[in-house]
Fold:
Amino acid sequence: MNVPPEIAEILAHWAQKAEHDLEAATRILALEDGCPFDTVCFHCQQVAEKYIECLLTLREISAPRTHDLRALGLLLPEDATLPVTFAELAELNPYAVQVRYAGDWPEPTLSDARRALSLALAVRGAVRQFLPPRVTTTERASEDPDGATPARTTEHS
Structure:
């Protein structure tokens, strides 16, 4: 795929920000006592959101300013399918805003955090297949959904 350099730069920025969120989520999830699962879930939602926005940018689709992953997913062209359903994407939506504030929202559990990480990694993996290699050659966090401390690696895909 021939991507203009200015678009590749934007894509690389989206991917880098998503990778930072992924690293934060995996490092926080590795905490044994007192792990803030709400924070893990927030960063997982951000991973998915940023990678979907990256794919929309690649396809020259303008995205509205929203944290609604279902709405963003609906904007994707048919040939850019994700390995998760729109309902699964919507599972991450509350973690974008509601979980960050005190209120009637139940605190996420370890199971919720692992599920959020699994969904985020699925979106990440699918989107990165569409991106040009120069965008995906970045340092990234480990993909261990069990929350082990991330290993720094360089991906060449």
Observations:
- The two ends are 14 Å apart (CA to CA).
